[in-house]
Design a protein that fits this description.
- By secondary structure, this protein is an alpha/beta fold.
- Helix 1 crosses helix 8.
- The longest helix is centred in the C-terminal third of the chain and has 25 residues.
- The chain is globular.
- The model has no long low-confidence stretch (mean pLDDT 95).
Length: 290
């Protein structure tokens, strides 16, 4: 007898109706400014996730014990960026309306904007925590307002001043760093200050966006815009474990470009980080329900 095809991310195969967290892929990289390929991330992560255990020794928790549904990838139009963002917004909004926590796998970082558009409509006091090597605060990139280099600037237009907390930033145009001083809370080079940020946002709805190039290229070379001087795997892991104190209502993980690391190590890092992020989000939800 043939077994059914199984293509969900690591153990994330519960029914939609029962799920607390819903994973979906946004395979889009049409505004990538350097090396494309992030559209392949979600399907590659699903395929490679079967090399991992569902159990996390870091958290003493197991993916199979929580309710996660993997809805697969959105079918996105590569020729129309605004339409892509609208499709992501509409899908995210449908999950939020069903009281699910959406977790999007990019794709380039611009996909975050679609999900933030949906989140801000439900949560007017939305705050954003952003891990990244890059500021992503340009007003435009080569004349284009919608770019992975402008995504956080577009998000700021929705949430307003001092509601975006950036960590790990080590690259950007000089004008972006100057603009940031008056509009966002930026921590350069590392994750210092995260505890204070968490304390300040404990009672707020939080969107968490993780650009994996916050990691040093020696740890994570498989990305479109690698930037030396990043954090270590354990620094990122320890930071994720602290996020269980927050009310994360939506999140994403993006900018894995598997083709640039044929060893598969970068995909392995992304899969492990995603496992820990899922367990962290669920921990927070369980604590609030308790």
């Amino acid at each position: 007898m043939l077994n059914p095809k199984i293509d969900a991310f690591l153990g994330c195969d519960k029914n939609y109706a029962d799920a607390d967290i819903v994973i979906f892929g946004a395979p889009f990289d049409s505004t990538t400014s350097y090396r494309p390929g992030t559209r392949m991330a979600s399907r590659t992560m699903r395929a490679e996730s079967y090399g991992f255990e569902t159990y996390s020794p870091y958290q003493d928790k197991d993916i199979t014990d929580i309710k996660i549904f993997d809805s697969g990838d959105l079918e996105l139009c590569f020729g129309n960026t605004e339409r892509v963002l609208n499709d992501i917004e509409e899908f995210t909004a449908s999950l939020l309306a069903d009281n699910k926590i959406p977790l999007m796998i990019g794709g380039e970082h611009l996909v975050t904007l679609g999900a933030v558009r949906a989140a801000i409509k439900k949560y007017s006091d939305l705050h954003i925590i952003h891990f990244d090597a890059h500021t992503d605060l340009r007003d435009d990139y080569l004349g284009e307002k919608l770019s992975h280099a402008t995504v956080i600037r577009r998000a700021w237009e929705l949430v307003g001043d001092n509601k975006i907390y950036q960590f790990g930033i080590r690259s950007g145009d000089k004008a972006e760093f100057e603009w940031a001083k008056s509009h966002v809370k930026m921590n350069r080079y590392n994750l210092n200050g995260l505890e204070e940020c968490i304390e300040a946002l404990k009672d707020k709805p939080v969107y968490f966006t993780l650009d994996l190039d916050v990691l040093d290229p020696s740890v994570f070379p498989g990305t479109g815009t690698p930037e030396a001087g990043g954090i270590s795997f354990h620094e990122l892991l320890n930071a994720l474990l602290k996020l269980n104190e927050l009310n994360i209502i939506c999140c994403d993980i993006n900018e894995l470009s598997p083709v640039y690391d044929q060893s598969g190590a970068s995909t392995a890092v992304a899969c492990k980080i995603l496992r820990e992020l899922l367990l962290t989000i669920n921990t927070n939800k369980t604590q609030k329900e308790g």
